[in-house]
Amino acid sequence: MQKLRLRYTKRGRLRFTSHRDIARTFERALRRAGVPMAYSQGFSPHPKVSWVGAAPTGVASEAEYVEVSVVERVDPEALKIALDEALPPGIDVIEVVQAHGGNLTERIDASEWRIELDGVEPEKLAEAVSAFLAAEVVEVDRLTKNGTKTLDVRPAVVSALVEPRSSDAGHDKTALSQPCGILMTVVRQVTPTVRPDDVLNALRVVADLVPPVPARATRMAQGRLDGEGTLVDPLQQDKES
To answer: What InterPro entries does this protein's entry cite (predicted)?
Structure first.
């Protein structure tokens, strides 16, 4: 049995799709692509697909990971092409590698997020970020199905900085004329999970920063933190083997 590890995206309108629906879509694509999947045993066999740290509903991602097991040897590049053809726009397979031992989950302990705040001046965002980083404790309330829960966001945030707005709008001068603060932050994967909206709530707590419109969050990378606070590609070991 061969195990393959995939990095894929969740872009555009699909950021509002739940992980359960993403998983169903992926499994249908695997069938349409004719991938010789390995199945579990028992009364209700299911394909051996393992998801790693799925992004929450409502955010986009450039770095989602999944492992699939097959019963016949498959060329990784051929699998990438076949799946891309079978998946809907927004879910794009970036790379496929053969697993060479180890546990993929253990290679991921943090995520890098890009959070765009339309209508927020970068200077005001930078002041809020400075206040947050200077604090030792920043508690926010999160509404859960079991009621309101308070969590300390500060220990999970490894780094946070404000970037100047890039010209994503091309030649749209109207769009570029609107203020937009862009926050790049690396957040440890702790329990309970600290999500992008928790970071934004923390900025509201320390600096009363409230964006006039909903922020757009995108996970840019996942990996293990090295000694300098940089994320190491979780597939690097497989590529080098």
So the answer is: DUF2344
The CATH number given to whatever domain includes residue 8 is 3.30.70.580
- Spatial distance between the Cα atoms of 225 and 229, rounded to a whole number of angstroms: 5
Q: Which pLDDT score is estimated for 170?
A: 47
With 90 as the cut, is the pLDDT of residue 141 above it?
yes
Q: How many residues does the chain have?
A: 241
Kindly state whether residue 224 falls inside one of the protein's structural domains: yes
- At position 234, the amino acid (one-letter code) is P
pTM confidence score:
0.90
Residue 227: burial class (beta carbons within 10 Å; 0-12, 13-18, 19+): exposed
Token pair 């498959």 in the structure block, residue: 74
Does the residue 236 lie in any domain? Answer: no
Secondary structure of residue 16 in the 3-state scheme: helix
In order of 67, 72, 143, 214, the CA distances from 95 in angstroms are 12, 19, 36, 31
Residue 76, helix vs strand vs coil: helix
213 is a domain residue: yes
What is the residue range of 113's domain? 108-231
Among all chains, which residue has been given the structure tokens 């862009």? Answer: 182
Read off the tokens for 97.
């590698």
Q: Is 240 exposed, middle or buried (0-12, 13-18, 19+ CB in 10 A)?
A: exposed
Strand segments (E) across the chain: 2-10, 49-52, 60-70, 93-98, 110-118, 139-144, 147-152, 157-163, 180-188, 216-225, 231-232
